[in-house]
Design a protein that fits this description.
This protein is an alpha/beta fold. Among the domains are: 145-266 and 326-561, TIM Barrel (Alpha-Beta Barrel); 580-679, Golgi alpha-mannosidase II (Immunoglobulin-like, Sandwich). Helix content is 20%, strand content 18%. Helix 7 packs across helix 8. The longest helix has 20 residues, at 485-504. The protein is elongated, with a radius of gyration of 27 Å.
């Protein structure tokens, strides 16, 4: 297309991206190896061809490697993209294609085609005015991790089911989620961890599968338009901010699951949306031959996160989400990739991670690392810095293994209960260094963990090859749904066991959306492409499994009602262990069985203040076990009281704190696969 001549001023190289100014917009884009940059303007979202093409002059409109121009009369809502000419020399890592329309890496909103199967219509960036929104004195809750319970959830999947009670126009949207906040406050969680809300390519394949989870971003600034209740990207921007503001009003923090390890452009045969066509050799980590992408993410490419330009983009993105969108923290997907250099080698002091760690804008935000990557780099317990908390995959595996009755696990299981000192104690960090979880989006739900021995991913169209094979699951005797009341009772009990262990162990707990009402994915442990009832929250389960919801709610009530000002909740993990506040037992007092064949453990936890004691008995054996009880010697209290017994029917499975019935015997029989907690 022959470029239209418009009166464009030189503009300036900062800020990067589109900036509304008096009389127009300043556009700025980094590209070191570009030979020509065209800024193209569109009139409508479905347009295939631009209405105007503005060629940036390399003399007037370029400073260093920044291409820029001030375009008069442009306003918020303007649709635009870039076309860039340069060498297409894959041997040097260059993949410029002047036929491609490219999203602005710093664009704050995008529009995508209405027809998700039409690849001829380009996605477009949108000019936004970020300063017109009324935050109404919104404040970050700033809860300490000691008071934090994280609920990992999918924005759309939470309300998309027709039985959600949400009007059809709001199902699967930010607005729809706002309407379900009372459910989350009743449950008692304090933070939501939202699966990716950065714009991702959600076009549907010919087989009908989609990128449901969203772990393939095409922008690190733009909010995902697909979760908006309107097609107006500016309104979607405000809709997300309405969501954050609504969460903050009830004291719930918003943590974003962010993906800075790869993009949705995939490998050599993938589409060109932005970075590949802007400066491929800068943005991506390439193999030594430059023709192939390093693939430490398992998704086809790896972002070159420690390159100065990419580092700046990541920090600018985090600043945007904290300053302009008021989010409270970030969970970094495959965070260990961020510790690799441009050749893929691990760095002892990764620049980008220290940039994040020491950044004053990010001080006080929650930083959570998934401290491994898809190429085998595993850094749990050794992640850099003082601010990072870490997903504890060993907690998940050892708790699952012990509770299904595996041998040789008791020592590891106990280590997970007390905050994984084998991983974290050497760092002199607070106990909440460990983010404890039994399930997350990636894998079985808690219901399926106790209902399936094998994964059942046939619906994904990969002949059940995808997803993990070693799930440490056990179905209790029948695969999938059962009409056997004994198996069903065992499953319900096991789920309560997992919740009890997770929510009362040392560390910061995370629970998966819907586990509190036994949400199932029918044995699918990799539902990344299942944007349907298989993945959505089934709201009929809230009534069906009201006993489990009550159980989890009362557990959370206790966790959040603790007096966190007391010394025992402010000590480091090592100090807690050094105080010997825990006394270990077996079926006999003071005689713990650490042998490989042991499937049970008991322990007494005593507060430093001397006013409270709790006695735990955990039986992962196939038969009931009778435990001796230690004598109560705390204050005037002479009897233990039964707070939790997961074998008992509701409401006796857990009592309201302070209303526990007395235990008059000197022993207590704990049923097979049950957890009992006594208090004094």
């Amino acid at each position: 297309m022959k470029a239209k001549r418009v009166e464009t001023q030189p503009g300036q190289p900062f800020p990067i991206g589109p900036t509304l100014m008096a009389g127009g917009v300043n556009f700025c884009l980094f590209s070191k190896n570009a030979e020509q940059v065209d800024l193209v303007l569109f009139d409508h979202a479905e347009d295939v061809k631009p209405s105007q093409v503005i060629t940036l002059d390399p003399i007037q409109n370029k400073t260093y490697h920044y291409w820029h121009g001030f375009v008069p009369h442009v306003q918020a809502g303007q649709l635009y993209a870039y076309r860039i000419s340069g060498p297409h020399d894959v041997m040097k890592g260059h993949r410029f294609d002047p036929q491609c329309f490219l999203l602005d890496p710093y664009g704050k909103a995008t529009v995508t085609p209405t027809n998700k199967k039409d690849t001829s219509i380009p996605m477009k960036s949108v000019v936004c005015d970020l300063h017109q929104y009324d935050w109404e004195n919104d404040q970050h809750p700033k809860r300490p991790f000691a008071q934090t319970v994280i609920y990992e959830m999918h924005v759309a999947g939470f309300t998309k089911n027709p039985n959600s009670g949400i009007p059809a126009a709001k199902r699967g949207t930010y607005s729809g989620l706002i309407e379900k906040i009372p459910y989350l406050t009743e449950l008692g969680i304090t933070a939501v961890e939202l699966l990716p809300v950065f714009q991702f390519d959600n076009r549907v394949t010919q087989e009908g599968r989609s990128n449901y989870w969203g772990y393939s971003p095409i922008s690190f600034f733009a909010i995902h338009q697909g979760y908006g209740s309107t097609n107006n990207p500016l309104k979607t921007l405000d809709e997300f901010r309405d969501l954050v503001k609504a969460f903050h009003r009830v004291g719930i923090e918003v943590i974003l699951d962010v993906v800075f390890n790869h993009t949705g452009e995939g490998g050599e045969g993938g589409p060109t949306y932005s970075f590949r066509g802007i400066d491929n050799s800068i943005y991506y980590t390439l193999e030594s031959d430059k023709t192939h992408y390093a693939n430490y993410s398992g998704c086809g490419n790896t972002l070159n996160a420690n390159h100065p330009i990419v580092r700046r983009m990541i920090i600018d993105s985090l600043h945007f989400w904290v300053k302009e969108m008021h989010v409270d923290g970030f969970r970094f997907d495959l965070a260990s990739i961020l510790s690799r250099d441009e050749h893929g080698r691990p760095i002892e002091n990764p620049p980008i991670l220290w940039d994040i760690e020491s950044d004053p804008v990010l001080a006080g935000t929650k930083l959570i690392a998934e401290a491994w990557d898809a190429a085998g780099l595993y850094q749990v317990g050794n992640f850099i810095g003082d601010s990072w908390k870490e997903w504890n995959g060993k907690f998940r595996d050892d708790v699952r293994s012990f509770m299904k009755g595996d041998s040789g696990v008791v020592k590891r299981f106990v280590t997970r209960l007390v905050g994984s000192p084998d991983l974290f104690a050497h760092q002199e960090r607070e106990p909440e260094q460990s983010i404890n979880f039994v399930t997350c989006h990636d894998g079985f739900t808690l219901n399926d963990l106790v209902s399936y021995n094998e994964k059942h991913n046939e619906a994904n169209g990969e002949e059940n090859r995808d997803g993990g094979n070693d799930n440490l699951s056990w179905n209790g005797g029948e695969e999938g749904p059962t009409s056997n009341p004994d198996i069903e009772a065992w499953r319900n009990r096991q789920i309560k066991n997992f919740f009890t262990i997770n929510l009362l162990s040392v560390g910061a707990p995370m629970i998966l959306m819907g586990d509190e009402v036994r949400r199932t994915q029918q044995g699918n442990n990799n539902a990344y492409c299942q944007d349907n009832v298989l993945s959505w929250f089934d709201w009929s389960l809230v009534k069906k499994h009201a006993d489990l919801f009550r159980f989890v709610k009362l557990l959370l009530d206790y966790r959040l009602a603790r007096d966190l000002s007391k010394a025992e909740y402010a000590m480091s993990l090592r100090e807690l262990m050094d105080q010997r506040l825990i006394t270990w037992h077996g079926v006999k007092v003071n005689e713990p069985d650490w042998a490989d064949h042991s499937h049970s453990i008991a322990f007494t936890v005593q507060a430093l203040s001397g006013t409270l004691a709790m006695h735990f008995m955990i039986n992962a054996y196939s038969e009931p076990l009778t435990f001796e009880l230690p004598k109560v010697s705390i204050g005037p209290v002479t009897l233990w009281k039964r707070w939790i017994d997961t074998n008992r029917p509701t409401p006796e499975d857990i009592t309201e704190w302070g209303k526990a019935p007395a235990v008059t015997e000197s022993t207590y029989t704990v049923n097979a696969f049950s957890v009992v907690i006594l208090v004094n």
